[in-house]
Amino acid sequence: MGSRYRRLLPAALAALTLAALLAGCSRADRATGDTGGSGGQDKGAAAEVRLGYFPNVTHAPAIVGVDRGLFTGRLGATKLTTQTFNSGTDEANALLGGSLDIGFIGSGPAINAFAKSGGTIKVISGAVSGGAQLVVKPDITTPAQLKGKTVATPSKGNTQDVSLKKWLSQNKLTDQVNVANLDNPQTFDAFRKGDVDGGWLPEPWSSRLVVDAGAKVLVDEKSLWPQGRFPTTVVVVRSQFLAEHPATVKAVLQGTVDAIDWAGAHPAEAATAVNDGIEKLTHSKLSQAVLDRAFSGITLDIDPDSATYSQLAQDSVTAGVVKTAPGLQGFLDLKTLNELLAGQHRPALDAAGLGNG
Q1: Average of per-residue pLDDT across 127-133
Q2: How far is CA 181 from CA 19, 177, 204, in A?
Q3: Helix, strand or coil for residue 2?
Q4: How many whole angstroms separate alpha carbon 323 and alpha carbon 79?
Q5: What is the C-alpha to C-alpha distance for residues 131 and 296, in angstroms, rounded to an integer?
Q6: What's the domain count of the chain?
Q7: Which of 159, 311, 332, 337 has its CA 20 to 30 A from that of 194?
Q8: 25 and 74, same domain (yes or no)
Q9: Which are the contacts of 84, defined by CB distance < 8 A and separation ≥ 6?
Q10: Domain with 185 in it: what CATH number?
Q11: Does residue 49 share a domain with residue 185?
Q12: 62: Cβ–Cβ under 8 A, 6 or more apart, which residues?
Protein backbone atom coordinates (compact mmCIF):
# COMPACT_ATOMS: atom_id res chain seq x y z
CA MET A 1 0.00 0.00 0.00
CA GLY A 2 2.95 2.33 0.63
CA SER A 3 4.01 2.15 -3.02
CA ARG A 4 0.48 3.13 -4.10
CA TYR A 5 0.64 6.38 -2.15
CA ARG A 6 4.16 7.14 -3.37
CA ARG A 7 2.82 6.94 -6.93
CA LEU A 8 -0.12 9.21 -6.10
CA LEU A 9 1.86 11.78 -4.07
CA PRO A 10 3.10 13.86 -7.07
CA ALA A 11 -0.47 14.36 -8.30
CA ALA A 12 -1.63 15.39 -4.83
CA LEU A 13 1.20 17.92 -4.54
CA ALA A 14 0.36 19.27 -7.98
CA ALA A 15 -3.25 19.82 -6.92
CA LEU A 16 -2.12 21.80 -3.88
CA THR A 17 0.18 23.91 -6.05
CA LEU A 18 -2.69 24.69 -8.44
CA ALA A 19 -4.91 25.71 -5.56
CA ALA A 20 -2.23 28.13 -4.36
CA LEU A 21 -1.84 29.55 -7.84
CA LEU A 22 -5.60 30.06 -8.10
CA ALA A 23 -5.65 32.06 -4.89
CA GLY A 24 -2.65 34.08 -6.03
CA CYS A 25 -4.23 34.90 -9.38
CA SER A 26 -7.41 36.03 -7.71
CA ARG A 27 -5.41 38.53 -5.66
CA ALA A 28 -3.60 39.72 -8.78
CA ASP A 29 -6.89 40.29 -10.58
CA ARG A 30 -8.17 42.48 -7.77
CA ALA A 31 -4.98 44.49 -7.87
CA THR A 32 -5.30 45.16 -11.61
CA GLY A 33 -8.90 46.25 -11.39
CA ASP A 34 -10.77 43.32 -13.02
CA THR A 35 -13.33 43.39 -10.25
CA GLY A 36 -16.48 42.45 -12.08
CA GLY A 37 -19.64 44.44 -12.60
CA SER A 38 -19.81 47.11 -15.31
CA GLY A 39 -16.47 48.83 -14.64
CA GLY A 40 -15.34 48.60 -18.29
CA GLN A 41 -16.62 50.46 -21.32
CA ASP A 42 -17.91 48.79 -24.47
CA LYS A 43 -15.00 48.66 -26.91
CA GLY A 44 -16.88 46.80 -29.63
CA ALA A 45 -16.05 43.34 -30.97
CA ALA A 46 -12.79 41.89 -29.68
CA ALA A 47 -9.95 41.16 -32.09
CA GLU A 48 -9.59 37.77 -30.40
CA VAL A 49 -11.55 35.66 -27.94
CA ARG A 50 -9.81 32.89 -26.00
CA LEU A 51 -12.10 29.96 -25.19
CA GLY A 52 -11.40 27.09 -22.80
CA TYR A 53 -13.04 23.68 -22.45
CA PHE A 54 -12.33 20.01 -21.69
CA PRO A 55 -11.99 17.05 -24.10
CA ASN A 56 -14.90 15.45 -22.21
CA VAL A 57 -18.39 14.39 -23.24
CA THR A 58 -19.66 16.75 -20.53
CA HIS A 59 -18.26 19.61 -22.65
CA ALA A 60 -20.10 18.46 -25.77
CA PRO A 61 -21.52 21.92 -26.68
CA ALA A 62 -18.02 23.39 -26.78
CA ILE A 63 -16.61 20.53 -28.85
CA VAL A 64 -19.51 20.66 -31.30
CA GLY A 65 -19.36 24.45 -31.50
CA VAL A 66 -15.64 24.43 -32.28
CA ASP A 67 -15.55 21.50 -34.68
CA ARG A 68 -18.61 22.51 -36.69
CA GLY A 69 -17.52 26.15 -36.93
CA LEU A 70 -20.58 27.38 -35.03
CA PHE A 71 -18.56 29.81 -32.92
CA THR A 72 -16.48 31.15 -35.79
CA GLY A 73 -19.61 31.51 -37.89
CA ARG A 74 -21.04 33.88 -35.30
CA LEU A 75 -17.80 35.69 -34.44
CA GLY A 76 -17.16 37.13 -37.88
CA ALA A 77 -13.79 38.91 -37.92
CA THR A 78 -13.02 38.05 -34.30
CA LYS A 79 -10.34 35.36 -34.05
CA LEU A 80 -11.23 32.28 -31.97
CA THR A 81 -8.35 30.78 -30.00
CA THR A 82 -9.05 27.61 -28.02
CA GLN A 83 -7.31 25.84 -25.17
CA THR A 84 -8.28 22.55 -23.53
CA PHE A 85 -7.89 21.50 -19.90
CA ASN A 86 -8.20 18.35 -17.80
CA SER A 87 -8.99 20.15 -14.56
CA GLY A 88 -11.42 22.85 -13.50
CA THR A 89 -8.73 24.19 -11.18
CA ASP A 90 -6.41 24.71 -14.15
CA GLU A 91 -9.09 26.41 -16.22
CA ALA A 92 -10.21 28.68 -13.37
CA ASN A 93 -6.57 29.62 -12.87
CA ALA A 94 -6.31 30.58 -16.55
CA LEU A 95 -9.50 32.65 -16.40
CA LEU A 96 -8.48 34.48 -13.24
CA GLY A 97 -4.97 34.99 -14.57
CA GLY A 98 -6.35 36.65 -17.71
CA SER A 99 -5.14 34.08 -20.26
CA LEU A 100 -8.71 32.98 -21.05
CA ASP A 101 -11.79 35.09 -21.74
CA ILE A 102 -14.63 32.56 -21.77
CA GLY A 103 -14.71 29.01 -20.49
CA PHE A 104 -16.84 25.90 -20.27
CA ILE A 105 -16.20 24.77 -16.71
CA GLY A 106 -17.69 22.83 -13.82
CA SER A 107 -20.00 24.57 -11.37
CA GLY A 108 -17.68 23.89 -8.41
CA PRO A 109 -14.61 25.69 -9.78
CA ALA A 110 -16.87 28.47 -11.09
CA ILE A 111 -18.27 29.09 -7.59
CA ASN A 112 -14.85 28.91 -5.93
CA ALA A 113 -13.26 31.27 -8.46
CA PHE A 114 -16.12 33.77 -8.16
CA ALA A 115 -15.85 33.78 -4.37
CA LYS A 116 -12.05 34.00 -4.18
CA SER A 117 -11.72 36.72 -6.79
CA GLY A 118 -14.46 39.07 -5.66
CA GLY A 119 -16.64 38.39 -8.70
CA THR A 120 -14.22 38.59 -11.62
CA ILE A 121 -16.11 35.87 -13.48
CA LYS A 122 -19.82 35.37 -14.18
CA VAL A 123 -21.90 32.38 -15.24
CA ILE A 124 -23.63 33.41 -18.46
CA SER A 125 -25.21 30.12 -19.57
CA GLY A 126 -25.65 26.49 -18.81
CA ALA A 127 -24.20 23.79 -21.06
CA VAL A 128 -24.62 20.28 -19.66
CA SER A 129 -26.58 18.71 -16.82
CA GLY A 130 -25.79 15.27 -15.39
CA GLY A 131 -23.03 12.90 -16.39
CA ALA A 132 -21.13 12.13 -13.18
CA GLN A 133 -20.92 8.88 -11.24
CA LEU A 134 -19.01 7.19 -8.45
CA VAL A 135 -17.66 4.03 -10.07
CA VAL A 136 -15.74 1.45 -8.05
CA LYS A 137 -14.26 -2.02 -8.10
CA PRO A 138 -17.03 -4.60 -8.55
CA ASP A 139 -16.53 -6.13 -5.09
CA ILE A 140 -17.44 -2.80 -3.45
CA THR A 141 -21.23 -2.76 -3.14
CA THR A 142 -21.89 -0.54 -0.10
CA PRO A 143 -20.55 2.81 1.13
CA ALA A 144 -19.06 1.15 4.23
CA GLN A 145 -16.82 -1.01 2.05
CA LEU A 146 -14.96 2.13 0.93
CA LYS A 147 -13.30 2.48 4.35
CA GLY A 148 -9.56 2.49 3.87
CA LYS A 149 -9.93 2.62 0.09
CA THR A 150 -8.71 5.28 -2.34
CA VAL A 151 -11.17 7.16 -4.57
CA ALA A 152 -10.07 9.64 -7.23
CA THR A 153 -11.53 12.95 -8.36
CA PRO A 154 -10.22 15.24 -11.15
CA SER A 155 -8.88 17.99 -8.86
CA LYS A 156 -9.23 19.41 -5.37
CA GLY A 157 -12.34 21.57 -5.12
CA ASN A 158 -13.67 20.65 -8.56
CA THR A 159 -17.32 19.72 -9.08
CA GLN A 160 -16.85 15.98 -8.63
CA ASP A 161 -14.44 16.44 -5.71
CA VAL A 162 -17.07 18.44 -3.81
CA SER A 163 -19.76 15.88 -4.68
CA LEU A 164 -17.65 12.99 -3.42
CA LYS A 165 -16.63 14.69 -0.18
CA LYS A 166 -20.20 15.78 0.55
CA TRP A 167 -21.39 12.21 -0.03
CA LEU A 168 -18.63 10.83 2.21
CA SER A 169 -19.69 13.28 4.93
CA GLN A 170 -23.32 12.26 4.64
CA ASN A 171 -22.29 8.61 4.94
CA LYS A 172 -20.02 9.33 7.94
CA LEU A 173 -16.94 8.34 5.95
CA THR A 174 -14.99 11.60 6.15
CA ASP A 175 -11.31 10.85 6.88
CA GLN A 176 -11.99 7.14 6.39
CA VAL A 177 -11.59 7.20 2.60
CA ASN A 178 -8.45 8.43 0.86
CA VAL A 179 -9.26 11.00 -1.85
CA ALA A 180 -6.66 11.27 -4.62
CA ASN A 181 -6.78 14.20 -7.05
CA LEU A 182 -5.74 12.92 -10.47
CA ASP A 183 -6.32 13.95 -14.07
CA ASN A 184 -9.01 11.72 -15.55
CA PRO A 185 -6.63 9.76 -17.84
CA GLN A 186 -4.40 9.10 -14.81
CA THR A 187 -7.39 7.81 -12.86
CA PHE A 188 -8.22 5.38 -15.65
CA ASP A 189 -4.67 4.01 -15.65
CA ALA A 190 -4.46 3.96 -11.85
CA PHE A 191 -7.74 2.04 -11.59
CA ARG A 192 -6.56 -0.62 -14.02
CA LYS A 193 -3.28 -0.96 -12.09
CA GLY A 194 -5.11 -1.23 -8.77
CA ASP A 195 -3.67 2.02 -7.40
CA VAL A 196 -7.14 3.48 -6.83
CA ASP A 197 -10.37 1.69 -5.97
CA GLY A 198 -12.75 4.00 -7.81
CA GLY A 199 -13.48 7.54 -8.88
CA TRP A 200 -16.22 10.16 -8.83
CA LEU A 201 -15.85 11.11 -12.47
CA PRO A 202 -17.49 13.04 -15.33
CA GLU A 203 -18.29 11.48 -18.68
CA PRO A 204 -16.78 9.81 -20.59
CA TRP A 205 -14.45 8.73 -17.80
CA SER A 206 -17.03 7.04 -15.60
CA SER A 207 -18.17 5.10 -18.67
CA ARG A 208 -14.59 4.27 -19.62
CA LEU A 209 -13.98 2.75 -16.19
CA VAL A 210 -17.22 0.76 -16.44
CA VAL A 211 -16.92 -0.43 -20.04
CA ASP A 212 -13.16 -0.67 -20.46
CA ALA A 213 -11.93 -1.42 -16.95
CA GLY A 214 -14.73 -3.43 -15.29
CA ALA A 215 -15.89 -0.87 -12.72
CA LYS A 216 -19.42 -0.83 -11.31
CA VAL A 217 -21.62 2.16 -10.44
CA LEU A 218 -22.00 2.76 -6.72
CA VAL A 219 -23.66 6.19 -7.02
CA ASP A 220 -25.15 7.97 -10.01
CA GLU A 221 -25.14 11.64 -9.02
CA LYS A 222 -28.50 12.10 -10.74
CA SER A 223 -30.06 10.14 -7.90
CA LEU A 224 -28.99 12.85 -5.44
CA TRP A 225 -30.76 15.81 -7.13
CA PRO A 226 -34.43 16.69 -7.74
CA GLN A 227 -35.49 15.58 -11.23
CA GLY A 228 -31.92 14.30 -11.64
CA ARG A 229 -30.68 17.75 -12.70
CA PHE A 230 -27.46 19.38 -11.56
CA PRO A 231 -25.13 21.70 -13.50
CA THR A 232 -22.09 19.72 -14.55
CA THR A 233 -20.81 22.29 -17.07
CA VAL A 234 -21.58 26.00 -17.31
CA VAL A 235 -20.27 28.85 -19.44
CA VAL A 236 -18.38 31.60 -17.62
CA VAL A 237 -16.79 34.86 -18.75
CA ARG A 238 -14.36 37.30 -17.23
CA SER A 239 -16.44 40.25 -16.09
CA GLN A 240 -14.08 42.78 -17.66
CA PHE A 241 -14.24 41.03 -21.03
CA LEU A 242 -18.04 41.00 -20.86
CA ALA A 243 -18.11 44.72 -20.09
CA GLU A 244 -15.65 45.62 -22.85
CA HIS A 245 -16.77 43.19 -25.57
CA PRO A 246 -20.46 42.34 -25.06
CA ALA A 247 -21.00 41.69 -28.79
CA THR A 248 -18.25 39.06 -28.78
CA VAL A 249 -19.70 37.37 -25.72
CA LYS A 250 -23.10 37.38 -27.39
CA ALA A 251 -21.60 35.72 -30.49
CA VAL A 252 -20.06 32.93 -28.38
CA LEU A 253 -23.34 32.45 -26.56
CA GLN A 254 -25.20 32.27 -29.87
CA GLY A 255 -22.72 29.63 -31.01
CA THR A 256 -23.41 27.70 -27.80
CA VAL A 257 -27.16 27.86 -28.39
CA ASP A 258 -26.59 26.77 -32.00
CA ALA A 259 -24.50 23.79 -30.87
CA ILE A 260 -27.04 22.63 -28.28
CA ASP A 261 -29.95 23.06 -30.69
CA TRP A 262 -28.13 21.16 -33.43
CA ALA A 263 -27.16 18.35 -31.06
CA GLY A 264 -30.76 18.05 -29.88
CA ALA A 265 -31.98 17.70 -33.46
CA HIS A 266 -29.15 15.32 -34.49
CA PRO A 267 -28.21 13.25 -31.41
CA ALA A 268 -26.38 10.46 -33.23
CA GLU A 269 -24.41 12.90 -35.38
CA ALA A 270 -23.64 15.00 -32.30
CA ALA A 271 -22.20 12.00 -30.46
CA THR A 272 -20.02 11.20 -33.47
CA ALA A 273 -18.92 14.83 -33.75
CA VAL A 274 -17.93 14.89 -30.07
CA ASN A 275 -16.02 11.63 -30.45
CA ASP A 276 -14.19 13.02 -33.47
CA GLY A 277 -13.40 16.18 -31.55
CA ILE A 278 -12.07 14.22 -28.58
CA GLU A 279 -9.89 12.16 -30.92
CA LYS A 280 -8.39 15.35 -32.42
CA LEU A 281 -7.60 16.67 -28.97
CA THR A 282 -6.39 13.48 -27.26
CA HIS A 283 -5.41 11.20 -30.19
CA SER A 284 -7.71 8.58 -28.70
CA LYS A 285 -11.22 7.65 -29.80
CA LEU A 286 -13.98 6.37 -27.54
CA SER A 287 -15.51 3.00 -28.29
CA GLN A 288 -19.11 3.04 -29.44
CA ALA A 289 -20.17 1.37 -26.18
CA VAL A 290 -18.47 4.08 -24.09
CA LEU A 291 -19.84 6.84 -26.31
CA ASP A 292 -23.41 5.56 -26.12
CA ARG A 293 -23.28 5.09 -22.37
CA ALA A 294 -21.73 8.51 -21.78
CA PHE A 295 -24.33 10.35 -23.87
CA SER A 296 -27.19 8.51 -22.22
CA GLY A 297 -26.28 10.15 -18.91
CA ILE A 298 -26.12 13.81 -19.94
CA THR A 299 -28.50 16.55 -21.02
CA LEU A 300 -27.27 19.41 -23.20
CA ASP A 301 -29.11 22.51 -22.03
CA ILE A 302 -28.54 26.26 -21.88
CA ASP A 303 -30.46 26.37 -18.57
CA PRO A 304 -27.79 26.80 -15.86
CA ASP A 305 -30.10 25.36 -13.16
CA SER A 306 -29.79 28.60 -11.20
CA ALA A 307 -31.67 27.35 -8.15
CA THR A 308 -28.96 24.77 -7.38
CA TYR A 309 -26.06 27.14 -6.71
CA SER A 310 -26.87 28.08 -3.14
CA GLN A 311 -26.94 24.37 -2.32
CA LEU A 312 -23.74 23.77 -4.27
CA ALA A 313 -22.03 26.56 -2.33
CA GLN A 314 -23.14 24.99 0.94
CA ASP A 315 -21.95 21.60 -0.32
CA SER A 316 -18.41 22.98 -0.48
CA VAL A 317 -18.67 23.63 3.26
CA THR A 318 -20.04 20.15 3.95
CA ALA A 319 -17.22 18.74 1.83
CA GLY A 320 -14.63 20.67 3.83
CA VAL A 321 -13.37 22.56 0.77
CA VAL A 322 -14.21 25.96 2.32
CA LYS A 323 -15.11 27.01 5.85
CA THR A 324 -18.13 29.16 5.04
CA ALA A 325 -20.49 29.23 2.07
CA PRO A 326 -19.64 32.15 -0.21
CA GLY A 327 -22.18 34.81 -1.07
CA LEU A 328 -23.25 34.41 -4.68
CA GLN A 329 -25.04 37.68 -5.41
CA GLY A 330 -24.06 38.65 -8.94
CA PHE A 331 -22.74 35.17 -9.77
CA LEU A 332 -25.19 34.81 -12.66
CA ASP A 333 -25.49 37.24 -15.56
CA LEU A 334 -28.14 35.87 -17.91
CA LYS A 335 -28.99 39.19 -19.59
CA THR A 336 -27.23 38.42 -22.87
CA LEU A 337 -28.55 34.88 -23.04
CA ASN A 338 -32.09 36.05 -22.36
CA GLU A 339 -31.78 38.65 -25.11
CA LEU A 340 -30.89 35.86 -27.52
CA LEU A 341 -33.79 33.72 -26.30
CA ALA A 342 -36.24 36.61 -26.63
CA GLY A 343 -35.13 37.07 -30.23
CA GLN A 344 -36.04 33.43 -30.86
CA HIS A 345 -39.37 33.72 -28.97
CA ARG A 346 -38.12 31.35 -26.27
CA PRO A 347 -38.78 31.80 -22.54
CA ALA A 348 -36.30 33.69 -20.41
CA LEU A 349 -34.21 31.89 -17.78
CA ASP A 350 -34.38 32.94 -14.12
CA ALA A 351 -31.24 33.74 -12.13
CA ALA A 352 -32.94 32.60 -8.89
CA GLY A 353 -31.96 35.81 -7.08
CA LEU A 354 -28.26 35.49 -7.97
CA GLY A 355 -28.24 38.05 -10.80
CA ASN A 356 -26.78 41.53 -10.85
CA GLY A 357 -29.82 43.37 -9.60
Answers
A1: 96
A2: 12, 13, 17
A3: helix
A4: 41
A5: 8
A6: 2
A7: 159
A8: yes
A9: 52, 53, 54, 55, 281
A10: 3.40.190.10
A11: no
A12: 51, 53, 54, 104, 127, 256, 259
Domain annotation covers residue 355: no
**Residue 357: pLDDT over 90:** no
Question: Could you tell me how many residues make up the chain?
Answer: 357
The H-or-E segment that residue 319 falls in is none
Domain C-terminal end among 208, 228, 248: 228
Beta bridge partners of 50: 81
Burial 171-180 (b: 16+ CB within 10 A, else e): eebeeebbbb
Residue 352 within any structural domain of the chain: no
CB count within 10 Å of CB 338 equals 16
Separation between Cα atoms, residue 185 and residue 205, nearest integer Å: 8
pTM across the whole model: 0.85
Residue 124 has φ and ψ, to the nearest 5°, of -115, -5
Q: What is the pLDDT of residues 255-303, one digit of tens each?
A: 999 999 999 999 999 999 999 999 999 999 999 999 999 999 999 999 9
**Same-domain check for residues 143 and 287:** no
At residue 40, the 3 state secondary structure works out as coil
Looking at the structure, tell me whether residues 335 and 256 fall in a common domain.
yes
For residues 207 and 242, membership in a common domain is answered with no
Question: Which residue range is the domain that position 83 belongs to?
Answer: 10-129+230-343
pLDDT digits (tens, 9 = 90+) for 306-319: 999 999 999 988 88
- With H, G, I as helix, E, B as strand and everything else as coil, classify residue 341: helix
Report which secondary-structure segment, H or E, holds 339.
helix 335-343
Other Cβ atoms within 10 Å of 32 Cβ, number: 10
- Domain-ending residue, one of 203, 228, 253: 228
